[in-house]
Backbone:
């Protein structure tokens, strides 16, 4: 089929274990219906849950990347997720859902064009930060 995929995007402090953080919504007959959809949730690029990130060791120096780790954008994360899905034979996405940073990922999925997306559900997210949000993040 390759067209019944639901992409679940996790928050900044989350990981790919959908059952741990959205378990009440996961399962046959529930909103994240595993009898109807192939659900895909991947740890985001740069996270500490299985992806290379700032705490990983730079093979050239033998030290942690730390501040030398390349900047990663929401767009980069979605591009990588789309590439994985394409390699799995996915041709279109039924829906993308996410909250907080995951909601930002869902919004990017809706505009990126890497794969056709039928529906986007973005919770507690915006397309960009306002100055006060940036200020809070810098504290």
Residues:
């Amino acid at each position: 089929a390759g067209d019944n995929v639901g992409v679940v995007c996790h928050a900044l402090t989350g990981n790919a274990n959908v059952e741990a953080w959205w378990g009440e919504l996961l399962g046959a007959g529930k909103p994240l219906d595993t009898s109807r959809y192939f659900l895909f949730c991947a740890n985001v690029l740069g996270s500490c849950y299985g992806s290379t990130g700032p705490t990983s060791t730079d093979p050239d120096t033998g030290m942690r990347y730390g501040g030398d780790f390349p900047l990663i954008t929401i767009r980069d994360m979605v591009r990588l997720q789309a590439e994985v899905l394409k390699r799995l034979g996915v041709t279109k996405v039924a829906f993308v859902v996410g909250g907080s940073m995951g909601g930002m990922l869902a919004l990017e999925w809706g505009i990126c064009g890497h794969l056709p997306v039928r529906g986007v559900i973005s919770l507690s997210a915006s397309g960009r930060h306002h100055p006060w949000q940036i200020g809070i993040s810098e504290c």
About this structure: The two ends are 47 Å apart (CA to CA). The beta strands are 5-9, 38-40, 93-99, 117-123. The helical segments are 18-22, 74-87, 101-112, 131-137.
